[in-house]
Amino acid sequence: MSLALGRTYLAIPGPSVMPDQVLQAMHRPSPNIYEGELVELTQSVIADLKYVARTKHHVAIYIANGHGVWEAALANIAEPGDRLLQIATGAFGHGWADMVRSMGIEVDVLDFGRNSTYDPEAVREALQNHNYKAVLTTHVDTSTSIKNDIAQVRRILDETGSEALLAVDCIASLGCDHFEMDDWGVDVMVAACQKGLMVPAGVGFVFCNETARQRRHTLNRVSSYWDWEPRIAPDLYFQHFCGTAPTHHIYGLRAALDLIKDEGIEQVWRRHEILAHALWAAIDVWSHTGAMALNVADPALRSHAVTAASLGAPHGTNLRRWAETKAGLTLGIGLGMATEEDPRADGFIRFGHMGHLNAQMMLAAIATTQAGLMAIGAPLASGAVDAAAQIIAQNA
Predict the structure, then answer these.
(1) Does residue 98 share a domain with residue 75?
(2) What's the CA gap between 294 and 211, in Å, rounded?
(3) Cβ–Cβ < 8 Å for 349, 334
(4) What are the residues whose beta carbons fall under 8 Å from the beta carbon of 172, sequence distance 6 or more?
(5) Whether residue 268 sits in one domain with residue 239
């Protein structure tokens, strides 16, 4: 028998749960795309995207997903013949490097595995030995849930005298994990609308400072669609988007950014932190009997937006299927976590806890996960829900 009828909960690491305010804002006829309220609305969205990113500099909006803004960022800072450094702590670091290669640009990948952050000394050595045009890294790799210290990368760049730009993927983390673009010395940052910004997938963002803009002007060619200059400083409104505006996404973004600003970005970060710790407390209890283990041992290196965990094959897949079909809870697949022993990553799951999320949703997801572990016959210790509830009771 299934008990899934009712409002389902999409607890994957993006797309995230969409607030009713966002859905209602988007449920409207198309507006005039040449003048009127849409023009003013777009300017307000741009200003508040900078608020969330903690930057006074620039943002270009693209009708694209995260992979699209990877390419957009690269198109404006590098060209064939250049050499970049990729710091990889999961599948998405490698994915960005693959895109670099596809554009005819050279890239060296420092792979630090799937369970911990980068080694600062290895990054330092690479920068001392090569003249890189940019260093690419994820703030949070969505596959592994590893959170990297971005300010430290900037310090290493400065200490080695490198002129490489620092480009950061915040697709999973923006609006969830603490991020300071300007204070941490980030030159380029990419993000998308479907995670912490709580809007349906389809729009992405490239933030850049003046140093990155100067690099763009040294390139021999930037394709008209990816060129961020007209989008940053348009003469006409349509140049923000190289054509027709993503009108309904703009209305949705306005509603989502209103929610973020009403709560305050620091409080948004704190809410994500508390709810993440509640989940980790539950998994720590389950780990006593081997039912589940966190992918990242050090809490300081874990994202507050996504948590990767292992159960052993086939328990991960079995748990996901039970939770979705029997209880209406959709958990994330073990993306990028395949091994020789587990080639389909059936032993891994990911919890998305980003954006429009509160305490009762997190507690419901934890309790439902516990029911699923019971149903599939995983070894189980009691007390996980109590441990999560205690975290919330102490911090609410």
Answers:
(1) yes
(2) 39
(3) yes
(4) 13, 14, 92, 138, 139, 140, 141, 142, 195, 196, 303, 305, 306, 354
(5) no
Query: What is the percent of the chain with per-residue pLDDT over 90, rounded to a whole number?
Result: 98
Q: Cβ of 156: how many Cβ atoms within 10 Å?
A: 19
Residues 5 and 10: their CA atoms lie apart, in Å, by: 14
pLDDT for 290 equals: 87
User: Domain boundary residue among 199, 233, 262?
Assistant: 262
Bond prior to 15 in cis (omega within 30° of 0):
yes
- Asked if residue 207 and residue 165 are part of one domain, the reply reads yes
Q: Taking 90 as the threshold, does the pLDDT of residue 106 lie above it?
A: yes
The number of distinct structural domains making up the chain is 2
pTM comes to: 0.97
pLDDT at 46 over 90: yes
The residue length of the chain stands at 396
Share of the chain above pLDDT 70, in %: 100
Among 241, 262, 283, give the residue marking a domain's end. 262
Regarding whether 197 and 79 lie in a shared domain, the answer is yes
CATH number at residue 222: 3.40.640.10
Q: Which residues on adjacent β-strands are paired with residue 6?
A: none
d(CA 364, CA 378): 19
Determine the structural domain holding residue 170 and report its residue range.
20-262
Whether the pLDDT of residue 291 is over 90: the answer is no
**Do 105 and 243 fall into the same domain?**
yes
Contact 222, 76 (CB under 8 A): yes
In contact, 205 and 191? CB cutoff 8 Å? yes
pLDDT tens, 8-39?
A: 999 999 999 999 999 999 999 999 999 999 99
Q: What backbone phi and psi angles, to 5 degrees, belong to 309? A: -145, 155
**Three-state SS across 199-241?**
CCCCCEEEEECHHHHHHHCCCCCCCCCCCHHHHHCCCCHHHHC
